[in-house]
Structures are given as C-alpha cells and as structure tokens.
Amino acid sequence: MEWTREQRYRRIEEATIEELTALQEKVNNSRWRQKYHIQPVTGLLNDPNGFSYFNGEYHLFYQWFPLGPVHGLKYWYYTKSSDLVHWQNVGIALQPDDYFDSHGVYSGSAIVHNQTLYFMYTGNTRDENWVRHPYQCLAFMDENGQIKKLQAPVIHEVPKGYTDHFRDPKVWKVHDTFYAVIGAQRENETGCAVLYSSPDLMHWTFEGEIHTRLQHFGFMWECPDYFELDGNGVLIFCPQGVVPAGEQFQYVHQSGYIAGNRLDLKTKIFEHGEFVKLDRGFDFYAPQTTIDHKGRRLLVGWMGLPDIPYPTDQDGWAHCLTLPRELTIQNGKLIQRPVKELEALRQDAVHVKDTLHNEQKRYDGFNGTCYELICEFTNMEAEEVGIEFRSSDEEKTVISYNRHKQKVTLDRTYSGEVPAKKYGTTSTCRVEGNAVKLHLFVDTSSVEIFINDGMEVFTSRIFPSPESTKICFFARNGNVSLDTTIYHLT
Ligand code: FRU
C-alpha cells in the first residue's frame, strides 16, 4: 500500500480506538515479533535517542511513527530499564505539537545537568510549500519523570553555508562548557559535522565545522556522536551517499566512525584515521552512545535501514533496536561487546567439545529461535568453518570463516524472506588468524554476531519461518576443533 503524505502526517489522536486496536492486533499476531529486543508496540521505530543513565535507571527513547510501518510524523517513544536487559515501555515522551517541531520530533541526545535530564533534539518543520526548516530544541525530565519542552528553540537558524539538512544534536560537557555536534550538509551538497558550545544548554554559539580529512564523503552526515575513549577522539556518524568502492558503501546509508587524537575544541581540527564501518551486517544505522555510572561507553543502534521495505510491514510494524554494546578501543579500533548484564537472560546451557573432519554436524540441545551461542573454532586446518542456523530443509542463515581468504561472511540468501535483495545477500569482512570465535544472539527475526570478542559485528534482521530452528556446525576441506555453548534465552 502506498501511503499518502496526509496519511504519513496524521497524528495519533486522529486515529480511532478501533483503528488502533486493529493495528495492535495485527502487530501482536506477527510471527516475527522479537522476544528480547526493543521493538515498537505498533508502527515504525528508527533511531535511538536520548540514551542516558539518570536517577538510577537507563533511559532510552526512539524515533517513532505510531500508525504504520512508514516514515511519517515522528514522536519520541520512551523505554527505561534498571539493568539494560529488561525494558519497560513508558509511552510517548515528546510529541510533534509545537510550531518548532510540527513535522517531527527528530533525533537528539540527553545529558544530566543540575539533577535534571535534558534532551536536545531537532524540531523538524515544513512550510506551506513543504520547505523544511529545522530548529534545535530543548526538553527536560525532572526527578518525577515528567518531561517538558522549552517553549522556544535554542538554535533558530541554520548557519550560513549549510542547507536545511541540519539535525541530530549530540551533547557532551567539558569542564563548565557544553558542546553539541550537529549533522549537516554544506551548500555544495557534501556532508559534515558542525560544533556548537554553550555555558548553560540554553544559549548556543556556532563554533564552526569540525575539520576532518573527509571533505567529499557523502551528501549529508546524519546522527553524529563525538566522545573520547582512553585518550582517543571518536566521531561516529552516518554519511548518506558515499560513492561505492568495491564491496564497500553499496547502499546509500552507512554508519561508521573515524578515530584519532582528541578533537581540538579551539581549532576544531580532528586528526583521524580511515573511516571504519561500525557493523558488517545488513541492518544497522544511526547508533547513539552514552556513558553510564560505571564509566562504560555504551552503544545502541537502530537495527534497520531507511527506505527499504521489510517483511514485517505487512504486519503493521517495522524495526527494532540492537542489544546494548560496551565500547572499548584497541589500537584506534572500536571493539564492541554485548553488555555483561545480558547474561541474565540465559536459561539452560548445553556445551559441546568435538573435532569436525570435513563434515557437517548437529548436536542435541542445539536448536531454537531465541538463543545465545558461543562457538570457538581452533586448530584450524580446514579451509572454511561455520554455522548454519535458523535452518530447515528450505532455509538457512550462514556465518562462516574462510581461512585462506581470511574473511568472515554472513549469508542470508536462504534466510526466508530477504529484504533489500538488490543490495546483495552476503556480507563479508576481513578477519585474520587460524582460529575464530563467533558469538551469536539470535532472536525471532534478528541475529547479532560478535566476531573474536567484538573485533567485528554483523547485525541483521532475518525472516525465516518459525519451523527453521536447526543449528549445524561445519568444516570444509580439513579438520577443526570445536568448543561451543548454547544458552536458550528469556
Ligand atoms: C536518521 C534520521 C535522522 C533524523 C531521524 C528522523 O535515520 O533521518 O537524521 O533525525 O532519522 O526520523
């Protein structure tokens, strides 16, 4: 079904109770509902927003269009958790009901100041000619959990030299000064990130552009996030429209980072290395990080991509968030590991140690649609090793390591219903060594695979039939030692 602009910009109050109930029922009957991932009650979820730790709890919001699986009028939906594992749906946090956010409460971030949690976000507006005018706005949550907006934007204008693609403020604090990085498009239609500063979150000064080496890298940078980790500066952002190079950048939307010295806040010079993709799977975008009370840098991403139809659309909902990951840095490379708290989901465990001789093998207890699987292949003489999971006679999803090519590949060609087939159904990245560790989190319609303790991650939605539950380990052309444990989850 084609959604008209009127349908996309309908407010939730305009829907009748009957319409909402019917939509809810359709969503509840979807065979692809997740068991332990954050997903929308109805409609479409996209970017994580306002990720923070405040008042003894983790707060996480996301972009939400309630009325269907399309990008329409965006709200902030609110979930919270005391352990990063069990999330409580609180409801709508910010509605697009003011002149400065009338066409969407767009992405933004949170920061604690004076025992209050502040949110800085982009208010998206359109005039009668549908010309966009973005405002940067502020809201706050008091200790009783009440969220209120400031009644005027804190940044009214796009600075000279930039277009109306100007959004997604991420705030942090250095000594007594707040800084915000904002995603922007130059008038020559190249992307960049700009810096603002403020003494109090209310009054902001445009400091200028962050000077990177990436002068012609896509036409817009969405969702920038700057932070420091072990003395390194890291700028995460999502460049749109990077020119494809080989297997890289095939799709319009990318998500990655540049890391290097600390950003010089005076000159705005950021000395950095290559742009590195954060995730090697098919469905990952617009991540946001925060630092928690334990000093950990945590990341959550949107497990989805813009402008692509997904099989759940027919069920009235789309997308979910990734599991929270802890970031560390080794030799300038970000390492991503699932947060330790997720162990709380583990039910029973089955452990197997074996040697595979150029064969495929299945083991008792290794099956399901919702589990964590840790698998180490060592003493690798085989050319290729791997796991087929969510498999049946007709379907399988495959993660494999080829020792000769030094490559890990995720193959979702036979995963069931496959979104965005035209962009390819296999995804690969370079991994070195004669051993490989694969750590999978499988949920009803997704998989997150951490390679070699977070050196690389493959995040993907998969849409197999509920009967595709088998797990099979394999070695091709030689032997390998296998040490694996499965934990059924929830
Ligand atoms: C990224 C993005 C942001 C914007 C939001 C709108 O996915 O386009 O740039 O703020 O989504 O939902």
Gist of the model:
This protein is mainly beta and 490 residues long.
- In whole angstroms, the N-to-C terminal distance is 35 Å
Q: What is the fourth-level CATH superfamily of the largest domain? A: Glycosyl hydrolase domain, family 43
- The poorly predicted ranges are none
Query: What hetero molecules are bound to the protein chains?
Result: beta-D-fructofuranose
Strand content: over 45%
Structural class: mainly beta
Instruction: Please tell me the total number of domains.
Output: 2
Q: What is the approximate shape? A: globular
CATH class value of the largest domain: Mainly Beta
3D architecture notes:
The protein is built from 2 helices and 34 strands. The strands form 7 sheets. It has a 6-stranded antiparallel sheet, with no helix packed on it. The chain is mainly beta. The two termini are 35 Å apart. 3% of the residues lie in helices and 50% in strands. The longest helix has 12 residues, at 17-28. Bound molecules: beta-D-fructofuranose. Beta-D-fructofuranose binds at residues 46-47, 63, 74, 106-107, 122, 167-168, 222-223, 285-286, 306.
Supply the key terms.
490 residues; mainly beta; Tachylectin-2, Chain A; Jelly Rolls; six-stranded antiparallel sheet; 2 helices; binds beta-D-fructofuranose
Topology overview:
Blueprint (H helix, E strand, L loop, with lengths): L4 H4 L8 H12 L14 E12 L2 E9 L9 E7 L6 E7 L10 E9 L2 E11 L5 E10 L5 E3 L12 E13 L2 E10 L4 E8 L6 E5 L10 E10 L2 E9 L15 E5 L15 E2 L7 E7 L5 E7 L13 E2 L1 E2 L3 E6 L2 E6 L7 E12 L2 E2 L9 E8 L5 E8 L5 E6 L4 E5 L14 E5 L5 E8 L2 E6 L4 E6 L8 E7 L2 E11 L1
Parallel strand pairs: 1-19
Antiparallel strand pairs: 1-2, 2-3, 3-4, 5-6, 6-7, 7-8, 9-10, 10-11, 11-12, 13-14, 14-15, 15-16, 17-18, 18-20, 18-21, 21-22, 23-34, 24-33, 25-30, 25-34, 26-27, 26-33, 27-28, 28-29, 30-31, 31-32
The chain binds beta-D-fructofuranose (FRU).
